[in-house]
Each structure stands twice: as structure tokens, then as C-alpha cells.
Amino acid sequence: MTNATIPKPKGLTAIRRLEWILDPVTYLERTKADTPDFFEEDSLGFGYGSVIITSHPEALQFILSRDRKTFDAPGELNSILAPILGDNSVIMISGDRHKERRQLVAPAFHGERLDVYGEMICELTRAAAATLKPGEPFAARNLTQQVSLQIIFKVVFGLDESLRSQQIMSLLTQTVDSLGSPFAALMLFFSSLQKDLGPWSPWGKIVRMRSQLDELMYAEIRERLATADPTRTDILSMLISARTESGEALSEQELHDELMALLVAGHETTATAIAWVMYWVHKQPEVKARLLAELDGLGPEATPTEISQLPYLGAVCQETLRRSPVAMFTFPRVAQEPVTLMGQSFQPGSVFLGCIFLTHQREDLYPNPHDFRPERFLERKFSPYEFIPFGNGSRRCVGAALAQYELKLAVATMLRHYQFRLASDRPEMAKRRGVTLAPAQGVPMIFVGER
């Protein structure tokens, strides 16, 4: 698809593909050393065929700022997620339908809605941490998943403490966890492994959990449709009452798939980010001391909005998203016309991926990129194509504002009210968790007690 002279990574395609699935960090760092700005790859297994991958901010700006003009962002290229999310969410649909759905969903994650969510985020975080006993070891990633899942259920979807809600949360966690290991991810990347060979087979277990989850989700949707309450402001109620430009309501399947996408994406990624902050803050005592001093300076009556505006807290969260990004790539873009990009010419139909992971590791942007140094974000302002944890353009994460707000408030709440320490001196490394990166050990910690 291209007449550009773009290098390919070294090695056999099959070996590169296995390395990409089982050890993506090593794969990406190796390709960075060989091909720092661009490389062409045909082994990622997303179904794109050959793709052009770039980490250069100039290239990213050109690609991501020309959606629906020079480039298209078709949802069908995200089909690797379809077995879990379905085909009808804002992640999977394209064109005008995607634009219209995004406009329906986005208001729940911005502006005044964040003020409503703030106190709930703090309360749920404190409640989860309060269940720990002094001296008790725990995995921070498990705690933060519990916190984030409860937030996405109660704050965004308005679900209560009913038995059905608890069952949905349990099954959702089990389904996502079942694809959490690098080896389990092989089933996502190799559709030939998606065989239901009975309840004890790996894919068979997922199929049955997903079936139970679907049954519960549709029951919740149908009950809410039958008892629609116009005073409710959660996203499910908003989607139920929403109408397209032609006056049509979303179907049950569209509601289901949208909820699945927002439930999975809305808690998994944020839970990982919170766990990484806890790791880096406790890994570097000077960072923790400065952050605690800033938090304590607010006083006990600080509002969530005041907490979220603290500059060093913001810098710590930004540096975490840079140093330990959860997402590795932006969503794919397809050239709709001949493209000249940084002196290279590409044919229509060329597929491009921005590499968030490699952009955040660029020496020319972030000197000594493996160091965790929040001061970077106090010393200069990075462009949306230099610091890009949530993607950009028409496919930028619809819940980015809520995710950042939740990240700051959850971290601040835990550090203001409780004491923790790392349970191990062993460095925490990133490994594949589905299509994202997460701490390999889950960040083992010890709960010390209240502050």
C-alpha cells in the first residue's frame, strides 16, 4: 500500500508476532532501537495487514488531526475486541454513526457531571481501602480494580447494590481477568483458538461467562426500559432517553454493547493507572513526601475539585501515564488519498498506528525516559501529540476527563487517609493484559494503617 521506504523490524514474521503478543514491551523497545520514528509491520495480528507505526509527534499530529478528511478511522479495524465488547459500541462503529453516538455518550463524562462524581469517587475509595487490615499484604491492582469497577457502576451507570448488580460486577471481572495473561491474549489475536470445546476449554469458559453476563445485562436494560425515570442522570438512563437525528432510540443490543464497552474500558484502564501511581509514589520516597506535603496543605475540608487542581498531584499522574502507559497504540487510521508525511509518500489505503508507548519513551521529548520524574510536567507543557495517553482526534478516549479525575481523586484519597508500603524491592514491570499493559506483579503492597 505504500511506495515509501519504511524499514521493517528484524526477524521472522511469526517470531515477531509471538514476541509482540507475549512480550510487547521487549518487542517495542527493540523496534525503537532499530527504527526510531517509523516502521512497517505485518505481524501484529489485528487484522489490518501491513501497518505503518510511528512515534514521531509531527507525524502523529498530521495523522490524528485530519480525521474524516485525509484519514478515516473505521471501527471495524478494532474487531479484535468484538468477542468481548460486541459490534455496536462507540469503539466499534464508524462514520456518521460513530460521530452521532459519541455526541450522545460524551456529556456524561465532562463538565458539571464530574462535580457530581467527585464525592462518590472519594467515598468509594475510602470504603475499599478501609477493608484492609494493618499488616495485611495485598495487590494494589486488585484493590484499584475493585474501586474503579464500583465507581463505573454507581457513578456512571447508576446501578445499585442489588443481587443482579453484584453478579454483573463479578462476571465482568472474571471475563476480563480470563484474558488478562499474555498467553490468554493469544486467543484474541488468533481467532483459530476461539473454539468452544466445552465448559472446561479456555474459550468455552469465556463463552459461558459472556453468555451469563449478557443475560444479566439484558435483564437490567429491559427493566430500566420498562421503568424509565427521566430524573435519573446516569449514562444508561441518558442513553435510554437519547434519540438519533432521525428520532430513533437505541436498540437493546446497542445499549448492551455500549454498556459493555464503557464498563470494560471504563474500569480496566483506570484501575491499572491508579495501581501504577501507587507503585511509583512508594518507589520514590521524595515523590511521596512532596505529594503528601501538597495534599496536607489543602486541609481536611478540601473539595474534590480543589484536590484535582493540585499541580504536583497532576504532574505525578501525568508522569505515571507517560512512564507506564496503559494503552500502547492509538486507534488505526486509513489514508483516503495519497499522503506525504515527513518526506515519505504513501498510497491510499495505507493503515497507520500511532505508538503511544514509544512516543512516551522518546529521548528528544523526555530525557532519561525510564526515570520517573513528575517535574517534567511542571517544567514544560507537552503538546497533545507528545503526551498522548488517551489517543487523539475522533477516536480519543470518550471517558478521558473522568479517568483523569478519578485517577487524581483515588490516589489523593488513599494517600491522605492511609499509609502503605511496597511489599517487595523487586522492580515492577509492565506486561500484556488483554490489549493493554499492566503491572506484572499487580504491585504487591502492605497496608500500614490510617494516617
From TrEMBL:
Residues annotated to bind heme: C397
- Which UniProt keywords are present, listed alphabetically? Heme, Iron, Metal-binding, Monooxygenase, Oxidoreductase
**What's a Pfam family in this record?**
p450
Cofactor dependency: heme
The record's GO molecular-function terms, alphabetically, read: heme binding; iron ion binding; monooxygenase activity; oxidoreductase activity, acting on paired donors, with incorporation or reduction of molecular oxygen
Q: Which family does it belong to?
A: Belongs to the cytochrome P450 family.
**PANTHER family named in the record:** CYTOCHROME P450 (PTHR24305), CYTOCHROME P450 12A4, MITOCHONDRIAL-RELATED (PTHR24305:SF166)
The name under which this protein is listed is Cytochrome P450
